[in-house]
Automatic annotation (TrEMBL), chains A, B:
One of its GO terms (cellular component) is cytosol. Residues 20-280 form the Carbohydrate kinase PfkB domain. InterPro entries: Carboh/pur_kinase_PfkB_CS (IPR002173), PfkB_dom (IPR011611), Ribokinase-like (IPR029056). One of its GO terms (molecular function) is kinase activity. The keyword Transport does not apply. Gene3D superfamilies: 3.40.1190.20. The keyword Ubl conjugation does not apply. It comes from Flammeovirga pectinis. Keywords: Kinase, Transferase. It comes from the Bacteria. This is Sugar kinase.
Length: 306, 306
């Protein structure tokens, strides 16, 4: 099934206890589209970069199965740049630099050939850009998934609430769920957030996995306990990309199938953190993904005979 | 199979955002023995209280299936008392009062009738008391499980390391695993801790569940996402009691069966936190426990066909 993603395509400079990078390719749109391309092709991308963005990397995305017709290249402008430094526990980070550049006036143009897309993944971007994409769709999709972050809760709350009310599934982390709902209990937070519009909610808990909510149902997915988290950048976006890619491939949005999609997303995220940036995602094969999904099963399955 | 537990039997005064209690019955030994009594009876208890401890509560334990022959009652002495206050997030607490009283000179006498016990649960107590119990056993048990806490790492490190080297399974929380191993990654921490002696390790993660390690195997159990955690006191001890009780009942210490034991322990712990102290544990039935174990399965199971 057809999948349209929107999100930043960016330069990142990352520092972790294991090392640091120069400007490498990152951005939610990049991670989402690579991750979802494991399941469905082509992945349609709406995004913007400057003319400093390497043509070879656009080729890399295309080789991976990404349709870049919706990737705008702005002459004489610069690509969005983010630099961050992770603390020793890898669970928190400081933003060192944010240069919006082309993102500042990003007008998310949806090419005519993208119309009719049935699965929509709105990566973390300003909620106003996210809602514009929805408004520009001429046909109602089967599923709209939205990722966002606390930054937008702080500076664009009304826009954010409007966009949240337009989507089917919201994906945020545990701290954000608590901030958005004002509830510490994630179960209570989920109820309040689903009352804001989305029928489904995913709460990402980093090294503790993720929770999927729908009505009174809950599914708890673990994270794979890794010896080393080398670079967490993009893990949440990779998770989202794997999740919606799997749903688009199977074209089944039952809760049971969403559980599997959460596991596929988690499996891809567990690869993402093993190297800097998108490096590991670009190495692995479908067989690697299947092997890891089996590891997730082994990690959680228990005999239920009494 | 026969189960011997040792642990504090205490008075607790607890304050949470939901309310506060006067002195109620608590202590690791209390929670462990009640939880394990759901699976195996009698549960043999080695513990000490003062003559201020209510006779009716000893009767309550006995009615639950606890053998109190090893419960020493010290005339003219007072029962161990702990008072604590939970923060709003319920994940951290301040200790307000610790009165060791009878625990100060606790000599853990193992009654002759307790000899031959095959499963041993050493609840959190001074590691010196825990190792004394092991040394007083005349027959080698099938499995010795030890719970401890950071307090002993700080004040009795050598004793602690000695006791850890004598047990088969250590149960601690994630912060303690990091402190004991000096490793942030729980997978690395587990390797280092198992090299200290125990063949198995359980890392408790509170609202994020628990991990069970053995050699290169890992099992991840979720916690049930609850609307409200009313009082977390005793949840870890209840988990440990349910875990070893289930193993003693089934007399099977394979890794597969330990996974189930972790789920049974988690199920009991999820009840424990619903009311103050042991109140909820004393209300529930075997059928309630089975129903909750099924909820855990529903929470984590996913279809593995590709």
């Amino acid at each position: 099934m057809s999948l349209l993603t929107v999100g930043s395509v960016a330069f990142d400079a990352i520092e972790t206890p294991f090392g640091k990078t120069d400007k490498i390719i990152g951005g939610a749109g990049t991670y989402i589209s690579i991750a979802s391309s494991f399941f469905t092709k082509p992945v349609r991308v709406v995004a913007v970069v400057g003319d400093d963005f390497p043509k070879e990397y656009i080729k890399t995305l295309e080789d991976q199965g990404v349709d870049t017709e919706g990737l705008q290249i702005k002459e004489n402008e610069k690509t969005f740049f983010w630099a961050g430094k992770y603390h020793n526990d890898m669970n928190s980070r400081d933003t060192l630099v944010t240069e919006l550049n082309v993102l500042e006036n990003f007008d998310p143009i949806v090419p005519a050939s993208y119309q009719g897309s049935e699965y929509i993944m709105l990566g973390n971007l300003s909620p106003q850009v996210q809602s514009t994409v929805i408004e520009r769709l001429t046909q109602k999709p089967k599923l709209i998934v939205m990722d966002t972050m606390n930054f937008w809760m702080d500076i664009a709350f009304d826009d954010l609430m409007k966009t949240i009310s337009m989507v089917d599934l919201l994906s945020i982390n545990d701290e954000e769920a608590r901030q958005l709902s004002g509830e510490y209990s994630l179960r209570k937070a989920a109820k309040k957030i689903m009352a804001m519009g989305p029928k489904y909610l995913i709460i990402k808990k980093g090294e503790h996995g993720a929770l999927l909510f729908h009505k009174d149902e809950v599914f708890s997915a673990p994270a794979l306990p890794l010896e080393e988290v080398f670079d967490p950048t993009g893990a949440g976006d990779t998770f989202a990309g794997g999740f919606i890619g799997y749903l688009a491939k199977t074209d089944d949005i039952s809760f049971e199938n969403m559980k599997k999609a959460v596991i596929y997303g988690s499996a891809l995220a567990s690869f993402c953190v093993e190297k800097f940036g998108t490096e590991r995602l670009l190495e692995i094969t479908d067989a690697d993904v299947q092997t890891r999904v089996k590891e997730f099963h082994k990690l959680t399955a228990f005999d239920t005979t009494l």
